[in-house]
Amino acid sequence: MEFERRFIGMDTLITIKVVSDKPPEQIDAIINQSVENFYYVEHVCSRFESDSELMRLCRHTREPVPVSPLLYHAVSFALEVAKESDGAFDPTIGRAMELRGFNRNYLHGQSISSSFADSADVDYHDIELIGDRYIYLKRALVIDLNAVVKGMAVDLTANAMKQAGLANFLINAGGDIYVSGNNDQKEPWRIGIRDPFHREQCVGIVCMRQGAICTSGNYERRMHPNSEESHLFKPNTHQSPRGLSSCTVVAPFAMLADAFSTTAYVLGLERGMNKMEELGFDCLMITHTANQFFTQKFKENLLWNVLIDRSFEKKVFRQNALLNIEKC
Amino acid sequence: MSRPSSKWVALCTAAIGITYAAGYVVTDQQNSLASNASVTGTHAQESLAKKHQNTQKDGQADHRSNSANTKYKDGTYSGEGMNRIGSVAVSVTIKNGKITRVQITDCTTSYPKSKIEQLPAQVIARQSSNVDHVSGATESTNDFIAAVTNALSQAQS
């Protein structure tokens, strides 16, 4: 039987699907326990709560601060991605994000303004790790872990579900997806990649039994409705890249797919694709002109499936969905 | 999948493994900077209890500096709102004056798939007949904000 749970966390819609023969009460209990990871990660790593562990860390400059293993590893991972991308990914953009208007807590609407961190030219070299427990900020800055922690919460949740004995499940945190095992048809999970230009449609489908897929794009979070500027921008110029509409990365962990879809998007078509080939992550980029670019093994590895009839109207789309569901 | 660089796989295996094994740990820096003590726990329920204790401590500390954080009364409130999906109902849980849970009430309990027709049509449409789920740029929660605001208005103290 298939079970589904939906809730709101980390400013997005989170869906968990489980296929299992275990009794519903047991599944419910496992899901309840597992989703604690989402609340925990948000509680520790939110940039929008002045008393999150992350924001308390940011208010301590030039002194070593002991942090929880979660915060330590989230920051450590973000710094590794920053090094790998030569700064195209940079976790010190928090204050710049606030100034771009990404400063409101989505739940109660209060905004945050970290004016203590107004020195404009900080970068990831200003964060140092000491031992395996301390973080040292050389200058006043706001750490932004939003391209890491959603994936990390997905990975922790997936880990908890596996430990609890579930083999077949899907976790979708607003498009950041991890799958394990099979769907209720006893087939690999089928994940559609959203068409950035016709958002009710997909450009194609990938099939996966194990692993994560994440898409970064400029079409859900704009600074203003008609602006080209979004939450994705180059740390050095503070401008959104212009060439790409979306970038999808497949990786063994959601935190990898999450961070590297953002990184590759910011690196742009050529450098981004080269970096993904180098690291061995399958990647699909869609340009502003709707051209699609794939890493060499993408289609083969993921049984890429282009929807044959892409002209389906919403109505037909909906009816098919209902029919299909009733059949199960 | 291609062969992802082993460095990154090792890094994530360690990060997730260690974080998971550590359980729900929130270091209270105000305290630990002074006394170098931190709150630790295991993955069992007791750790959750400790986490909540810790949250409470933070909440009290805030009470002095920022009254905005204590404007909600503890409890669970439901709210409804209209949006492009249709009508949406949520339940918002407040603990220690803070929002701790937002569940979508018509979908929160597990149910067999045969009941899924009751979901708003567009939610189903977005998933399409051919796919289990869709990967796209992170969707915002704008569609649910009216319902959340509605619930929060009841929680105002």
UniProtKB/TrEMBL annotation, chain A:
Known catalytic reactions: L-threonyl-[protein] + FAD = FMN-L-threonyl-[protein] + AMP + H(+)
Keywords linked to the UniProt accession: FAD, Flavoprotein, Magnesium, Metal-binding, Transferase
EC number(s) stated in the UniProt entry for this protein: 2.7.1.180
Cofactor(s) in the UniProt record: Mg(2+)
Pfam families for this protein: ApbE
GO MF term set: transferase activity
SUPFAM superfamilies found in the cross-reference section: ApbE-like
Highest taxon, organism lineage: Bacteria
Similarity remark: Belongs to the ApbE family.
Protein name as annotated: FAD:protein FMN transferase
TrEMBL record, chain B:
Signal peptide: 1-21
Keyword Signal recorded: yes
InterPro entries: FMN-bd (IPR007329)
FMN-binding domain segment(s): 84-155
Record key words, sorted: Signal
Signal keyword on record: yes
Region annotated Disordered, chain positions: 43-76
Gene3D superfamilies linked to this entry: 3.90.1010.20
Protein name: FMN-binding protein
Organism field: Sporolactobacillus mangiferae
